[in-house]
Amino acid sequence: MTTETSRWSESTDTAARVRHVALTRTEPRTAEWIAKEADVPRDTAVTYLNRMVEQGDLEVVETDEERSYKPDRVTQYLREVRELAEAHTLDELTHELDTIGEEIDTWKDTYEVESLAELRQSIGRDDLTGDKRRERLEIIEEWEYNIEMRESIQLAISLKCSLTTLGIESSSEESSTKLP
Predict the structure, then answer these.
(1) Residue 82 needs a FRET pair 20 to 30 A away by CA distance; which of 61, 64, 131, 158 works?
(2) Which parts of the chain register pLDDT below 70?
């Protein structure tokens, strides 16, 4: 553990620190690295990391040197869908789908393309300046994000509808109760 002042509050327990560090990484990290960031002994980190693997929160990446851990993408994605379903009404989710659709339609008109693939291909046009290519690259990133969000929102709507049908969630759109 480090001798410098801990960035963790005294009320944050060991398990929460390891969990936070492990789940907020985008690249696989070793237990030693996670332990240092969480300000816990390595063996303690390994104990919690193995539990998280068993629960499906983390994936193990084996290398020649050491075992590394990274967040399980499926678990994270499903957690995000659940959070969307809990935090928003069906009307809000539907409105957001419409907003995404309108933004994509605007890009199609602006760049005279029918799809994201066509916009990608247009980057190679000879008549585009460097600034115009960079602008299109930024739009490609936004378009990709919108597609991901659209899929998440569609699943959140499906989840809310399924739970309502099963009687697990109140049919009232004003309900602020959490999903089971």
Answers:
(1) 61
(2) 1-6, 169-180
